[in-house]
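Record 1 of the preview.
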Amino acid sequence: MTDTHLEIERTYDLPDGATLPDLIGVGGILRTDRQEPFDLDATYWDTDRLDLVVSRVTVRRRTGGPDAGWHIKRAESDTVRHEQHFPLTEDADAVPDEVLAALFTERRGRGLQPVVRIQTTRAVTRLLDDDDDQVAELADDAVTATRLGPDGAPVADPRRWREVEVETVEGVDPQVAHAFLDALDGRFAAVGAGRAAVSSKLARGLAGADAPRLRTAEKPAKKTAARAIAKRLARLRASLHRREARLRSGEVADLGGLATTALGVAAVLGAYRKAFPDTDLTARAVRAADALADVTARGASAEDLVETLHRAATPAQEELVDAMTRERIIAATRERRDTAARDVVRFLNTPDFLDLLDLLDDAVERPAPTPWSNQAPKKVAQDVTSVSKPAVRDLVRAAVGDDPRDEDADRAATERAWLATTTMRIAMDVLGDDAFASALVRRIGVASDVLTERVQALHALEELRLVAGIASRGGEDTFGYGVLAGDRVRRAEESYDDAVHALSRV
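->
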């Protein structure tokens, strides 16, 4: 069993010999209750590249105190962390499988090794209000940190310091918690203490360590395409980590949001491939980005069907759809969504996804602009347009052409055209409003919109036919499915006409 909670705290550095400030009267504190000191002993683990530290994630095995066990902390900011607890294991030299599984993405699939041992003598003071309810907890820590080698042996002299952590009780509104912590700053300043320059004990303990993920490069020059690409990838990487972590943890995730992020990554890597090194990793990562975009797009489509497929276009049509029809559709679309979500999670656990993350890490943390990407955005946009526009036009023409084909081929051609127009639309947005011709941006946008509508309608028809077929074989009335299908047929036909019109202007 694991336990997860939100941790909001602030850390102060205290000079040698300083006494704790008097906090009575601040933020509702009317009484304090100082506990007996106790000892904590924690070993922190990471990859040999320190992937977890760079991802602002820490994992430790700690003994002593009330919360002994394995802990994963994910930092949202310098003061806000999401902490996950796992039971203490007897083997101090191996990370439990469930901890490794929870860290798969951040550790990039690599093994973990001990990196720092932190021993703390902690004296806790409970900060209480006028009802003797706890407002926060103050931990006065005397810390000794020792950097370790892969075998767990010390590789540097210990570092020692004193710090105070103040953590609000769980469940407090974050804005209230931060206002409370702000109110404490003046009292700590009065005794010569200030906010810690480094709030992480692990970061202090790692001082002097050298690892690949700690080596960074300068940002690309301003007003170049490389700068815009690196900036966009930084946002996309952050969004990808946030969304895939939620999905992997089993939470009800936003598949549509994940698909949008994945499409963004695929668009940047595809349209601006010449901005990246010509290596095997780049080739693998581009393929992985396309695969991620495909599997998440199917998930987003399935998610949309759950919300929309059982609903008719008008109140009059709604009355023609019976309850059994709706229930069967809802059950079928939820099953489709859940299957799609499992497919996404399965991909997130592949080496291909890790290749993609490695390339994003390099692009964001150690950018190495190519001569092509070091040009002005408008020049790069001209090159992208000359390649992408004909390819998009051909795919759209294939999707709305008059050649006879079956439904599966029609849907596949439409999906390819939708993907091409959508990723080009995203790619054009990367370089800013002035890089691409405004008329092209507008026309690609229209083509993407109408093809999105058509793809959704075709997926809806596919699902309705499948569910109606099951109902028919069970002897059920299928009239309601026909009502719902008729509306989707109308949308598909209208979007087809719109797509033909948009083609002439791409």
